[in-house]
Amino acid sequence: MRGYVRVVSGSRPVRVALIDNFEVSVAGLRSLLAPFGGRVALLDLGTAMTKPSSVDVILYEPVRQTPTSQGMLRDLVRASQKSAVVYSWRDRDGETTGSFAAHLSKALPAPDLVNAIEALADGGDVSPMRRMPSDHGPLNVIKKTRQRDYELTPREAEILSLVTQGLTNAEIGAQLYLSINSVKTYIRAAYRKIEVTRRAQAVAWGMEHGLAPLAESDVTGG
């Protein structure tokens, strides 16, 4: 994040709780933050709920929240005395609703995301990260591999994550309110960018790049 110098307040990593009904997003964030374990740690949600004092930053995806997840968010904010920060593909001026202290895009590269989380934990300003201009163009939403950037748009990355999760084109269309033809168009564009031709190859690529769904043991902490 440009223009920001973090003042280190302690030696432990910043502890983050994420409330997101897309399990693949939780798995993706965990993979994204793994190389920065000394600076940021993603807490198991069960741990965060039972020990809210351990939480430094709360992230949440407002899209497709259920009454249960909304209740968990309210309880965690109240118990931890921390503000909730939107972490979403959607722009702040898009379909998200409700009030929030800041808005971090899921398209942020890992170093920028880590810097923003640290800024939030230290009470700093993350205004440069709050929204993506509509003319931003293709976004680097997948980490670098073999010295290349995969210039996936947010929608292409979102659909790839659902492909990796095992959803059919019809299920993806129903979940994202897209026509089958639109889903196929996004998939073809994504396949070209990651240089695969078959669904099995795309799933393997997604698993390698942190887009795989959580295992049951990861969800429950068992």
SSE layout:
Blueprint (H helix, E strand, L loop, with lengths): L13 E6 L3 H11 L6 E3 L2 H6 L6 E4 L6 H14 L3 E5 L14 E3 L4 H12 L32 H11 L4 H8 L3 H15 L4 H10 L7 H5 L2
Parallel strand pairs: 1-2, 1-3, 3-4, 4-5
Helix pairs in contact: 5-7, 5-8, 6-7
How would you describe this protein?
One of its GO terms (biological process) is regulation of DNA-templated transcription. GO terms for molecular function: DNA binding. Keywords: DNA-binding, Transcription, Transcription regulation. Residues 145-210 form the HTH luxR-type domain. InterPro entries: Sig_transdc_resp-reg_C-effctor, Tscrpt_reg_LuxR_C, WH-like_DNA-bd_sf. The chain is an alpha/beta fold and 222 residues long. The protein folds into two domains: 14-134, Rossmann fold (3-Layer(aba) Sandwich), CATH 3.40.50; 137-222, Arc Repressor Mutant, subunit A (Orthogonal Bundle). The chain has nine helices and five strands, in the order βαβαβαββαααααα. The protein has helices spanning 23-33, 45-50, 67-80, 110-121, 154-164, 169-176, 180-194, 199-208, 216-220; strands at 14-19, 40-42, 57-60, 84-88, 103-105. A five-stranded parallel β-sheet has the order 2-1-3-4-5, sandwiched between helices. Helix 5 crosses helix 8 (199-208). The radius of gyration is 17 Å and the shape is globular. The N and C termini lie far apart (36 Å).
